[in-house]
Write a structure and sequence with these properties.
75 residues, mainly alpha, Lysin, 79% helix, 0% strand
């Protein structure tokens, strides 16, 4: 798994986005989230790679993106 993919997956887990998912839904959620980030938010992924970290601006964007993605996943 690429560095930026790992960052997104770990971010989702450590920020509580996986807490209410069934264990069987975690891998599909992770795979879909990474694909969504690559296809719709490539700039954020590139920023993570370039900086080697999550900036405050990226953190704010990721909170919004993950909240929306989680809502769609649960729909």
């Amino acid at each position: 798994m690429a560095f930026e993919d790992q960052v997104v997956a770990i971010y989702a887990g450590t920020r509580g986005y996986l807490d209410k998912l069934a264990v069987s839904d975690i891998l599909p959620f992770q795979d879909g989230l990474v694909a969504h980030m690559k296809s719709s938010h490539g700039g954020i992924m590139a920023d993570i790679v370039a900086k080697g970290a999550i900036s405050d601006e990226t953190d704010k964007s990721m909170k919004d993106i993950l909240s929306k993605y989680l809502a769609e996943f649960n729909a």
